[in-house]
Amino acid sequence: MKSKLISYSLILLAIIAFSCNGEDGADGIDGVDGVDGINGTDGPDNGLGIIILSGDITNDEAATSLTENLGKNTHTISISGTTNLTAIDLSEISTLAVLEVNGNENLQTLSLPDLETTFDNVQIFGNPKLENIDLPILETTLGNFAIGNNELLVSINFPRLTSAQRISFSSQPILQNLSLPLAAQIEVLNITNNESLVQIDLPNLRKLLGLSLSNNEMIQSFSLPLLESTTGKNENSFTIGNNQNLQSVDFGNLDEVGGVSISSNPRLALFSMNNLVTANGTIRITNNVLLTNATFSSLKSAASIDITRNDALTSINFDEIEIINLVIQISDNNMLEDLSFPLLTSIGTENRFSFRIWNNDLITSIAFPNLENLGNNISKTIDIRSDGLEILDFNELTTVSTFSVRSNGTLTSVALSSIQNFSSLRFPRMSTPVIDNLVSTLINITPSITDTSISLVGTASTQALTDIETLRSNGNTVTLRD
């Protein structure tokens, strides 16, 4: 490139010389003593926009190519599919839009000592002998920044990184430590499939919108102690799953997320997000076999709640939640004894509603004492199945399509005093006072109900039997089995 520039400069110099009047020009006009660059020898070379290193290029050849072609215009560097390259030093470049370092058979060290900012896409993937990635003054990454499938990688050095948009560390089988000591803001962080990773250090992270921490077999704790509230509607999720030795998680003061999924972490015993106020997606806690307690003591609203198959779970806390927009499902938690949502007033929307509490056979009490609204969906079914159930409290509920309860036990208390509109009520065995009270509630609905189906099990009093006949006379199907 420089030879072409020199030729062009010589032609330009000849034209200038031909047009001169023969007298000595002022310094700089004759192209010799002037400002650097006019004589074509000492002038700046701004480099190529795109540099590609590939094939059987050697270290020396790569260094020569970079010396000749790297400059201020360089925005994209691709180092891919090389067979002889063992080390690459990309000095004197402070910004890049695209960096691709992929599939280099013998590359061991990647150094970008002057890189401060990346703007679009960085990929460092599938370099089987790469041991070190050193970016000592990188401060900001915009777009994607992904490191993965580098089998011998032992060191990632980002000591000054403060801000990242989307950053990913995945499938690094011998990487043990990951530290971003100054990172304060990351939009989305993925740490997945790193089987030897034992420590993650993010001591100054304050803003994080989305997280995936999954399939890291050796990690025992994950803490973001300074994590703060988010601003605006956050639709990203926090996912922690399949971390075989994870025992503790700390999300600091985070008060809003898109959703939360905590699943298949077999050694996780306690989980809390006590500062979380809003979940714009689903709260999902599933398949954590040692989890005994899950607490969301400040949560006010969530799109959905799914608590399933946690064999040791004895308690959950959603004491402040008022709105669930779509679905509540709490199923197959074998040790859960009581279930209460004391302030919940609304579940469901016009388009979707689901209420399912199944196979939590030690639960004796289910209480939703302020639940009033099940949305405008045509099918509004409350489906409860629990063999140990004794107490039900839905005292403010007025409208439901189907209210179905299945249990091998006997209900000793049912609060359903506000019910007005329904298609079907199905209850298991109830004590005589409970049957009498429920039938009395139904017979006193104004205007009188008709075209409903009511199924009861137990012994009714004489007055309740009389009221049941009245309900039948009004066009309702009432079944009473002893």
Automatic annotation (TrEMBL):
Which residues constitute the signal peptide according to the record? Answer: 1-22
Q: Does the keyword Signal apply?
A: yes
Source domain of life is Bacteria
Task: Say if the entry is tagged with keyword Signal.
Answer: yes
Q: Which UniProt keywords apply?
A: Signal
InterPro entries recorded: LRR_dom_sf
Q: What is this protein called?
A: Receptor L domain-containing protein
Q: Which organism is it from?
A: Aquimarina spongiae
